[in-house]
Amino acid sequence: MTETRFWLIRHALVEERARATLYGLMDVALCPHTLQAQAPALRALAQRLPRPAHWVVTPLSRTRRTAEVIFHAGYPAAPLAVEAGLIEQDLGDWQGLAHAALPPRLTRPAHAFWPLAAEERPPGGESMAEVVARVGPALERLARAHEGGDVVVVGHGGAIRAAVAHALRITADNALHFSVQNLSLTRLERHAAGWRVVGVNAVTGG
User: Fold this and answer.
1) Cα distances (Å, whole numbers) of residue 164 to 121, 176, 197
2) Secondary structure (3-state) at 54
3) Rounded distance, CA 126 to CA 134, Å?
4) Considering only CA atoms, which of 100, 81, 184 is closest in space to residue 141?
5) Which CATH architecture has domain 4-202?
6) Where are the chain's structural domains?
7) pTM for this one?
8) Distance (Å, rounded) from C-alpha 30 to C-alpha 118?
9) Which of 8, 23, 38, 124 is the most buried (most CB within 10 A)?
10) Rounded distance, CA 14 to CA 117, Å?
């Protein structure tokens, strides 16, 4: 198997009202003021990404909109393939709740760096451990389909942590200790011998 390179970008910051809630799979808008302020960083990110590359987004519009903003910042526009397997964690009945409303509903202590424990499954949703089990096969499919190439994925914080968990063969609980900021870049490589982590949460300066 020839090396396949993945460039994982967390979508841009969402609008303020959404950030006050557990938005999960809700289709929320990006924050226009933050996008303006981050224009230099977006231009630097557009210059850093490989050309050519296969671009992937999720079914949620914030990933597509982020890709379009990167194109506007200087990356040549490319077709956007949709991969549902890389979507954010499904928070089920808890989506849309204010953060303060969540603790009494938990069946186990929250993770130190995530609203839920890795094994906590919201009613009608999925646990972070289940996200890892979903994201891994999606990455393997993309690696096979684009062997030897570059794949740029505009995705979500939870799914990017899950991708790192799959690459490193660590638990979802361990993966939640990784910081993945908005517009940060995480790089993975799929080799015949397995996965290699090149970098996590790199923030491109303007």
Assistant:
1) 20, 10, 7
2) strand
3) 10
4) 81
5) 3-Layer(aba) Sandwich (3.40)
6) 4-202
7) 0.96
8) 27
9) 8
10) 23
